[in-house]
Amino acid sequence: MSNVLTKFYSYVIICNMKTIFYILTRTELHEALMQKLYDYGIPGATSIQSEGMAKVLYDHGESAIMTSLRALLSNSPNENITIFAVIKSEQISDFKRAVNDVVGDIAKAENGFMFAMDCEIIR
Questions:
Q1: Separation between Cα atoms, residue 24 and residue 83, nearest integer Å
Q2: Within-domain flag for 93
Q3: What is the pLDDT of residue 108?
Q4: Given this model, what pLDDT does residue 110 score?
Q5: Residue 45 and which of 84, 99, 107, 116 are 20 to 30 A apart at CA?
């Protein structure tokens, strides 16, 4: 292995961690959800205000697709909150339970959506 790769891999720690993302559409539940995550042993998470691409296009565009988007987005929330955390793989179920306890069944589209990705920690 080259010196460059050896040096790079000495800084990468491969671990059994996931980065989990949850798009909260019911923003009034933000504080309650953060508290529930803490109660379930998720010691830290970050939340940011966000909005989806369709909402941005709806607000700023005048194309043929806007007619369709207006019908779809007429009852959509103006903003979302994206919550993400780096957690141990075995904590995924705790994160999901916290969301279900506060928001309800995440299988329902109006309750947002969640996904997780493998995480490599780079120091």
A1: 7
A2: yes
A3: 85
A4: 82
A5: 107
Residues in the chain: 123
Residue 44 lies inside a defined structural domain of this protein: yes
Query: Does any domain span residue 99?
Result: yes
Percent of the chain with pLDDT over 70: 67
What tokens were used for 74?
């007429």
SS3 12: strand
Kindly state the helix (H) or strand (E) to which residue 17 belongs, with its residue range: strand 12-24
Domain that holds residue 36: 3-50+79-122
Instruction: Quickly list DSSP for 26-90.
Output: -GGGHHHHHHHHHHTT----EEEEE--HHHHHHHH--STHHHHHHHHHTTS-S-EEEEEEEEEGG
Mean pLDDT of the chain: 81
| Dist CA 114 CA 45 (whole Å) | 14
In this prediction, residue 6 carries a pLDDT of: 52
Work out the pLDDT band at 36, boundaries 50, 70, 90: very high
Distance of CA 65 to the CA centre of its chain: 27
Q: Read off the pTM.
A: 0.74
